[in-house]
Amino acid sequence: MVNPIHLRTLLEVTRRGSFAAAAQHLGYTASAVSQQIAALERETGVVLFTRTARSVQPTDTAFVMARHAAKVLTDLDALLAAATKSPDHATRELVLGIFPSLATYVLPRVLQTSAWQGLGRRLRIRVGEPPQTIQGLRSGGELDLALVFQVGQSGLAWPHTLHRQWVGDDVFRVVLPHGWGITDGSRMTASQLTEMPWIMHHPGTSDATVIERLFASCNLHPQVVGYSDDFNASLALAAAGLGAAMVPELVLKHSKENFVVVEVPEIRLARTVFALRRQESGQSERQDAASEDASLDLFVDLLAAAFAEAVAD
User: Fold this and answer.
1) Which domains does the chain have, with CATH numbers?
2) Residue 231 gets which letter from DSSP?
3) Which of the 8 DSSP states describes residue 37?
4) Nearest to 275 by CA among 151, 139, 153, 137
5) How far apart are CA 140 and CA 45, in angstroms?
6) CA angle 266-272-277, nearest 5°?
7) CA dihedral 153, 157, 162, 168 (to 10 degrees)
8) What stretches of the chain adopt beta strand conformation (E)?
9) Which residue numbers delimit the HTH lysR-type domain (predicted)?
């Protein structure tokens, strides 16, 4: 399904003639606008802009799609406006389960948007790790929506009865202490990092299992000097000289610690962020949940746009 946030971005780019002008109007960075347009091109399978070193030019398809996008967005705004005028809308809550780094670096961006304020929902949140959060979505749980991540293609699992919506991919990077004398951005091999001191996830966790298998596959055998499941703590300890660490971009981009990031081609890993919610099984339940689903879909779209912006900053 095409993301309406991406359609709004397309409309502004075609109206204003550049990614930079659209970014200024929408409150994004130019890089975030570029990423949203690239995502829209992947979603639709068509080229919307021709890019050169100096400019971007909309294709005829972009102008046609922008005209249709204007109508779709107008209808969506009308739908949301009608929803906010319903008798019970003003008192409805969104009970959200969310993991710490998303609550720290992404959710505040969403709450500052006019689109969120237009939803007219009261927010209650439960900050916790994904396994804990998923429990709140099981039968009888209080959560409306759970924001979780899965590292690699395995690890965290959830019941097949939950509806899943992709939010974004958060790439892991290898971080080294600045005091090791390695230049930021250096290209290294996994063998050069073996036997070095490392800060790792606690053994037995799903994240640790995936990372351990990845390291074993490229013959990297770390000398473990610490265990930490908190990325901010791992980054601070790495910056202080304790050892190397794997840290996702979302945390990395917002840290003021003094560290070095290196490129290791053998180490390719990301945590994929998903929004999960229960699926109503009965016909009457599905009918009652239709407006709620539209509201949650829009919230997740806002979150995905804020996530892309936070990683691009």
Assistant:
1) 4-84 (1.10.10.10), 90-167+273-312 (3.40.190.10), 170-271 (3.40.190.10)
2) H
3) H
4) 137
5) 41
6) 160
7) -40
8) 49-51, 56-58, 93-98, 122-127, 145-151, 162-177, 197-200, 223-227, 245-248, 259-262, 270-278
9) 2-59
Per-residue pLDDT tens digits for 248-265:
999 998 888 899 999 999
Q: Find the length of the chain.
A: 313
What are 172's strand-pairing partners? Answer: 248
Q: 187 in helix, strand or coil?
A: strand
pLDDT, tens digit, 9 for 90 and up, residues 270-298 = 999 999 988 765 444 444 555 567 778 88
Give percent helix, percent strand, percent coil of the chain, each to the nearest 5.
Answer: 45, 20, 30
Tell me the two tokens of residue 38. Answer: 């690239």
The amino acid sitting at 296 is: L
Contact indicator for 243, 225 with CB cutoff of 8 Å: yes
Residue (of 180, 179, 202) closest to 193 by Cα position: 180
